[in-house]
Amino acid sequence: MSLDRPRVLSGIQPTSGSFHLGNYLGAVRQWVAQQETHDAFYMVVDLHALTVMQDADELRANARLAAAQLLAAGLDPDRCTVFLQSHVPEHAQLSWVLNCLTGFGEASRMTQFKDKSAKQGADRTTVGLFTYPVLMAADILLYQSDVVPVGGDQRQHLELTRVLAERFNARYGDTFTVPDAFIVKETARITDLQDPTAKMSKSSSTPKGIINLLDEPKVSAKKVKSAVTDTGTVVSFDEENKPGVSNLLTIYATLTGTSVPDLERKYEGKGYGALKTDLAEVMVDWVTPFRERTREYLDDPETLDSVLAKGAEKARAVAAETLAQVYERVGFLPAKH
Fold first, then answer.
1. Looking at residue 173, what is its pLDDT?
2. For the chain, N or C: smaller number of CB within 10 Å?
3. Catalytic site residue 222?
4. Is the pTM of this model over 0.70?
């Protein structure tokens, strides 16, 4: 792997079982592309998953399932580093140091924490949820990441990461790379098939509005065919007036690499039925091999665990070097072996 490549780090939660189409088109697809251009580190963030109550057996199964789906989607362990966050103890170790640099007021202002804690009430809100953004900062800074792909809901957390990196560097000397946000301009925003004004989401979409990639292909096809559109007939991209049709065009364009204007020309005078029928077929063609590859990894846990062990070893080689520097600079006495 070329050392002059910029380093990128990203992570995905293991809590959701099957990835949905929004996860893939909005994030994982970019990860697959970036492994060709960046020194890429991708992790299943099972430490972060503990901010909500987890069943231990389910968490283990979901961590494996998330890793299998990342590999099935096209991440190549020879081109990038794929690992579980909990396999690299330096994440938690650096997080403590950064916690001690983070102001209580700073952490309190994080909008995700405010929203989630308001929803579930103070008595059910954990300190882990409060310090989640600091652990995220540790994730990023451990690997001296140059860029971090972020969606709108994570920009504030990346800003905190930058602040903490600069604060540590000013206090203890130049230690951390200050990362930039990588915002992909053409990132597909995939919306709910039944409510095309809302983002496709595990937590808020109805079962009919979300396409889970591990569902039976015919189930996904049926959901596409019953997607909400509008009372018109012209297939054109207009997010304000035709959010449903625009969403279908976005999905079609992203899965096939065809431009939206080309699709508009293709369906001129044909109506929504033709678009949905063809997209349902495209969906089946895409999810079928994805499901098969995921199943192959799950049926061979030894190979999957071996990939994750090698990934953790590669990740720890980088993380341990950063942590050793941090420990020396904050004044910890080195352990003698």
1. 96
2. C
3. no
4. yes
